[in-house]
Amino acid sequence: MKRYLFALAAFFIISFAVSGCQSKATSTGSTGKMITIGITQIVEHPALDSAREGFIKALKDNGYEEGKNVTYIKENAQGDMSTAETIAKKFVDKNVDLIFSIATPTTQAVKKATSTIPIVFTAVTDPVAAGLVKSLDNPGGNVTGTSDMEPINDQLKLIKDLVPDAKRIGIIYNAGEVNSTVQVKIAKDDAAKLGFSVKEATVSNSSEVSQAAQSLVGKVDAIWLPTDNTVASSVAAIIKVTNSAKIPVIAAEKGMVEGGSLATLGISYSDLGYQAGLMAIKILKGEKPANIKVETTKNLQLILNQKEADAIGFKIPDSIMKKAQEVIK
């Protein structure tokens, strides 16, 4: 009888424990625990902010809700690599479940800090050249994500369509950013094929951006801005110079147009971040980053800034205006 009662008691104890575990798994996700994701961003500007929000939305849409079954530790390096490295070390020390890294420099920092914690990146132009993955199809290691490689040739063609008489193009960028040097090399090759000459103005930090823009006045017919983090965070300084000189600025992404550039034919960083979020979910469910291909987005948007056109006395051709997905007024 005693043996029977002991067995019965053991049964109820085990049943209660299993029930508790199942309840926890339901409330905190399939892993049975609160997931912690570290988010590191190199600097604040609209494109990267949109990518971050897109990532969080993808997880929320798929059942990972902040405060319920996922905790985000959000950090910003404010353009400083030593800070980016400190953030990376912090995430490793906290043993987060996954790191979401926004932009090339921060991704290089977290990859250097850990070879075991899964890393999903976004807003990285060339992850192979940056030393982040072995190849786009077979990343290897603990890193994968979404690339923001822009349709550079199409953007230069947009300059030709908008400014048919343009012969000289200026490019402002940070020569210390791998993503920027990759883009500029492509741009120079494509520009030559389109009959453009290129004048470069390099910077090492945001305080030099205005002076770089000023150095192009009188020497170029239009300016093209790549997806450079230093430049993207200082677009207002560029536009202040170019508006005075009546120089049209064509940018690589929407945030720069919202900041005062004339036009872009580019990708949506919100969509790019969302794609990265879906990749993160695969990893949280057990897939290995090494086996998940690096993704890009093909959804291009023609965005025009009529307010900027008016400011520099520029007439956007009707043929281009009709093709625009968005016109800022």
UniProtKB/TrEMBL annotation:
N-terminal signal peptide: 1-19
List the SUPFAM superfamilies hit by this protein, alphabetically: Periplasmic binding protein-like I (SSF53822)
Xref: InterPro entries: ABC_transpt-TYRBP-like, Peripla_BP_I
PANTHER family found in the cross-reference section: ABC TRANSPORTER, SUBSTRATE-BINDING LIPOPROTEIN, ABC TRANSPORTER, SUBSTRATE-BINDING LIPOPROTEIN-RELATED
What is the official name of this protein in its record?
ABC transporter substrate binding protein
UniProt keyword terms in alphabetical order: Signal
